[in-house]
């Protein structure tokens, strides 16, 4: 993790600023949950609400699906690849 002040300088403990995990951590999350990402790409309707992204080591999946079966398939895959609900995946799905 690296932290920078608002002026871009490195921070000491307790100084205001922002901290981020390196981009490689986001790539690792994406690779770890690739089967869920692939299923989401296939099941979620392509419209303005569709969002699949990794930010600060959290995979966020949201959007609309056509059927209850698609909704259940995504949650079943989620439970398969993230059985302990690690906090690395956030899903917000609705049925059209």
Q: What is the β-strand count?
A: 5
Q: Identify the strand order in the major beta sheet.
A: 3-4-5
Which structural class should the secondary elements be placed in?
Answer: alpha+beta
Shape estimate: globular
Mean pLDDT: 83
In CATH terms, what is the fold-level topology? Alpha-Beta Plaits
Helix content: 25-40%
Radius of gyration: 16 Å
Strand content: 25-35%
Brief synopsis:
This protein is an alpha+beta fold.
Topology, element by element:
Elements lengths: L1 E3 L13 E3 L2 H10 L1 H10 L7 E5 L2 E8 L2 H14 L7 E7 L1
Helix pairs in contact: 2-3
Descriptors for this entry?
Alpha-Beta Plaits; 3-stranded mixed beta sheet; two-stranded antiparallel ribbon; 3 helices; 35% helix; globular
Walkthrough of the structure:
This protein is an alpha+beta fold and 96 residues long. The protein has a single domain (17-95), classed as Alpha-Beta Plaits, CATH 3.30.70. The protein has 3 helices and 5 strands. It has helices spanning 23-32, 34-43, 68-81; strands at 2-4, 18-20, 51-55, 58-65, 89-95. Strands 3-4-5 form a 3-stranded mixed β-sheet, with helices on one face. A two-stranded antiparallel sheet has the order 1-2. β4, α3 and β5 form a beta-alpha-beta unit.
């Amino acid at each position: 993790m690296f932290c920078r002040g608002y002026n871009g300088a490195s921070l000491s403990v307790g100084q205001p600023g922002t901290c981020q995990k390196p981009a490689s951590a986001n790539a690792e999350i994406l690779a770890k949950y690739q089967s869920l990402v692939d299923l989401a790409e296939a099941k979620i309707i392509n419209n303005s609400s569709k969002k699949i992204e990794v930010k600060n080591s959290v995979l966020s999946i949201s959007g609309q699906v056509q059927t209850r079966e698609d909704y259940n398939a995504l949650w079943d895959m989620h439970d398969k690849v993230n059985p302990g609900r690690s906090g690395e995946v956030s899903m917000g799905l609705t049925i059209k």
